[in-house]
Amino acid sequence: MTTDTARTAENAAATLHLPVNAWYEANARDLPWRRPEAGAWGVMVSEFMLQQTPVSRVLPMYEQWLARWPRPADLAAQPPGEAVRAWGRLGYPRRALRLHAAANAITERHGGEVPSDHAELLALPGVGEYTAAAVASFAYGQRHPVLDTNVRRVFARAVSGLQYPPNATTAAERRLARQLLPDEEATAARWAAATMELGALVCVARGPQCGRCPIAPRCAWRLAGFPEHDGPPRRGQSYAGTDRQVRGKLLAVLRESHEPVTQATLDAVWDEPVQRARALDGLVADGLVEPVEPGVYRLPVE
Q1: CB count, 10 Å around CB of 37?
Q2: How far apart are CA 46 and CA 256, in angstroms?
């Protein structure tokens, strides 16, 4: 980060923390994983589920999941296939396997309690940079930069004057996030949640509601006249006709059956044999489906 950029970040931090955190106090949604009773496990479950999935789809599945598995040990005691089954149609079902693996590790290494140490969180299966920081911040009130898509978009606009952040998180974004982080732990944890909520509700990707934004007068993108994005094209998320759709259809059949499923039953869900075989092979390779014998499949049991 250049000296000028660092100075810009320092100036921004001094003027952004108070209005953004105050806005959050008044406007934050009442979500179950934000309540004290959710605990660190509830926060972790929500973070796994919310990756690339909107809150509206996560809410019912989250409630069902915590009712069934209120502690990591409860999930760890079940076969991984049950996690896949309970994941339902949230999408990206490998997250269910990763959460099951994390629950096993928490049970075996940490006495069934989600660790508060950032390094120990990062060492859990399926827990990356973002999830470790989010759990440490939201569950334990610690000071960590939490960079999801919403936060990155707020920083890109408010500080860097860009309509959108890069497609993938960059080292410069990480430096900026650290530069903007409040010094005091509780304030930093609130800032992490507040910037995420601001990006989710106000500073949205399309049609940002600048009239509702608590930092609109300081927003670099607004002050620059809302310049159009001139970087690489934004990636769309197509679904219809893709291998992802085929995988979902195959997995739905297996989730609905508590007995092994024959190849003939799976063949009935998609009429293009090459794509169907590729999707099934991918599910097996990812550990989401396991062959019982030639032509017979089930959800994983080990």
Answers
A1: 7
A2: 24
pLDDT band at 139 (very low <50, low <70, confident <90, very high): very high
24: three-class secondary structure by DSSP:
helix
CB of 114 closer than 8 Å to CB of 139: yes
Angle, helices 243-256 vs 80-87, to 10°: value is 110
Mean pLDDT is lowest, of 25-34, 150-159, 228-237, 246-255, for: 228-237
Instruction: Provide the strand spans (E) within the chain.
Output: 261-262, 290-293, 296-298
Amino acid identity for residue 194 in this structure = A
What proportion of the chain, given as a percentage, has pLDDT over 70?
94
Which residues belong to the active site?
47
CA distance 299 to 301: 7
Residue with tokens 């980060």: 1
Distance of CA 113 to the CA centre of its chain: 21
| Nearest-angstrom CA–CA distance, 46 and 286 | 22
- Give every CB contact of residue 201 below 8 A, 6+ residues apart in sequence: 27, 29
What is the residue whose two structure tokens read 């909107």?
54
Q: Give the tens place of pLDDT for each residue, 26-82.
A: 999 999 999 999 999 999 999 999 998 999 999 999 999 999 999 999 999 999 999
> 225 Cβ partners below 8 Å, 6+ apart?
none
